[in-house]
Specification:
Blueprint lengths: L19 H11 L8 H14 L3 E5 L2 H17 L13 E5 L8 H5 L3 E5 L10 H10 L5 E5 L8 H10 L3 E5 L7 E2 L2 E2 L6 E5 L12 E5 L2 H10 L23 H10 L3 H18 L5 E3 L7 E2 L6 E4 L6 E4 L4 E4 L7 H10 L5 E2 L15 E3 L2 E2 L22 H8 E3 L8 H14 L2
Parallel strand pairs: 2-3, 2-4, 3-16, 4-5, 5-8
Antiparallel strand pairs: 1-9, 6-7, 6-11, 8-9, 10-12, 12-18, 13-14, 15-18, 16-17
Helix pairs in contact: 1-8, 2-8, 9-12, 10-12
Length: 429
């Protein structure tokens, strides 16, 4: 089938503006509250608490800043206040979701911690509770776990929460991609002690940037407000007893978020429609959509992703920065599909490359459902690429190899999406 390039680019996920945003941005301008204080900040903190059901929300410059503050809170709670410049984690290990963006993990390093990556499971593409329990067997002294809800799909929260409680570990939720998603009727970002959401420009609610720390701990929330405004003490001059950060959200950015928040449910409904149209459109292909626990959770469907069946994969190799494939009749691969979409002016992306295979973190520990996931092959004895259950031992790597993120912009029309579906089908012909 012959296709014409889309006149207007179909994005992976771009900001969806409604007009109310300008009202609040203009209000900040006209009242001269062009600062990190103002009515917009106060109001979005109130609204988010009300929408998500958390006790306190602190508006910050980015989701990454929120995660940094969460990690610092956890470190000081467990290990106490440390020497200036040493970081609150002081060389201690922290268990982290493996298949995620590096902004999840880097804050651990900011505070002097050592990330240990926990492999992924196939049911939700999130942290594997079995691997997490194995990790505690290997590193029983760990007291912090950072959990991600990838692509807006809730993880196996009950199981992970129970394991954390069993081992006396603090749970931090990275809900940057999952705002509005629920698990057993409860919003993600409310299950951990300290949790984070993002308003980055491609998220389901955007301020162009920004994020929030969520917690039920009032003292912790107040501490973050202090840290995020350079830890200024209550004195008539600049007085500092602790290291501070310039992390507070701008009242202008907060105005954009304020105008966006009433549309959260609308955006989720639009994203779900996109997911379901893909699922229906691909039903005859050797692929599956990114999964979720339909009985216990409702994702926000931020990104629609697909996974190609192993036997339907054509030959594909990837270097650190490039990928090559050999086209085969009846088969395809993520690289071929992504190149096809790009050719016609549509944006897809590879699955987030797991942290344990990132060059910066290749020497960090990695734990699978069977224990240590490093150095598991042997030239003289059969390798261990496959687990005892017959599935790939490194689940995250398998999903990365076979998966891709599809154009999921909620301004894409049903007709445009149908063309994208046909483009993908064409790759398997």
């Amino acid at each position: 089938m012959e296709f014409q390039a889309f006149k207007n680019k179909i994005w992976l996920s771009s900001p969806t503006m409604h007009g109310e945003e300008l009202k609040y941005v203009t209000e900040a301008y006209e009242t001269n509250w062009m600062s990190t204080v103002g009515a917009n900040i106060n109001e979005i903190e109130r609204i988010v608490c009300e929408k998500l059901g958390c006790g306190h929300a602190v508006a910050l410059s980015a989701g990454t800043a929120s995660l940094h503050m969460a990690v610092k809170l956890a470190g000081e709670r467990i290990y106490g206040q440390t020497q200036l410049g040493k970081g609150a984690l002081g060389g201690h290990r922290v268990f982290c979701s493996d298949m995620t963006f590096d902004a999840t993990v880097n804050p651990v390093v900011y505070e002097g911690g050592v990330p240990v990556f926990i492999d992924t499971e196939y049911d939700t593409w999130n942290m594997d509770p079995v691997a997490l329990e194995k990790a505690f067997e290997m590193y029983p002294d760990v007291k912090v776990v950072v959990l991600v809800h990838l692509y807006g799909v809730p993880a196996k929260i009950d199981e992970i929460r129970a394991i954390c409680d069993k081992h006396g570990a603090i749970l931090i939720e990275d809900a940057a991609e999952s705002m509005g998603a629920t698990y057993k009727g409860r919003q993600t970002g409310t299950f951990g002690e300290y949790n984070c959401i993002s308003f980055n420009g491609n998220k389901i609610i955007t301020g162009s940037s920004g994020g929030m720390l969520l917690t039920d701990d009032e003292e912790a929330a107040n501490k973050v407000r202090k840290w995020s405004t350079q830890s200024r003490e209550n004195a008539p001059w600049y007085q500092h007893e602790e290291l501070g950060y310039n992390y507070r959200m701008s009242n202008v950015i907060a105005g954009v978020v304020r105008g966006q928040l009433p549309h959260l449910e609308e955006h989720i409904a639009q994203k779900k429609e996109i997911y379901m149209r893909y699922k229906e459109g691909f039903k005859d292909l050797p692929v599956s959509m990114n999964p979720y626990d339909a009985e216990n959770s409702e994702p926000n469907f931020w990104l629609s992703c697909m996974l190609i069946d192993g036997e339907a994969m054509c030959s594909q190799v990837r270097s650190e920065t490039e990928a090559l494939y050999i086209s085969e009749k009846g088969r395809s691969c993520p690289t071929e599909i992504l190149e096809t979409l790009a050719k016609y002016n549509a944006e897809g992306r590879p699955i987030w490359k797991p942290m344990h295979i990132q060059p910066i973190y290749r020497m960090n520990a990695f734990v699978t459902r069977e224990g240590n996931g490093r150095a598991k092959t042997n030239a003289y004895v059969g390798g261990r690429a496959i687990g005892k259950d017959g599935n790939p031992l490194d689940v995250g790597m398998d999903i990365f190899d076979r998966g891709l993120c599809l154009p999921s912009d909620n301004k894409m029309t049903a007709e445009e999406q149908e063309i994208i579906v046909e483009m993908v089908k064409g790759c398997f012909e």
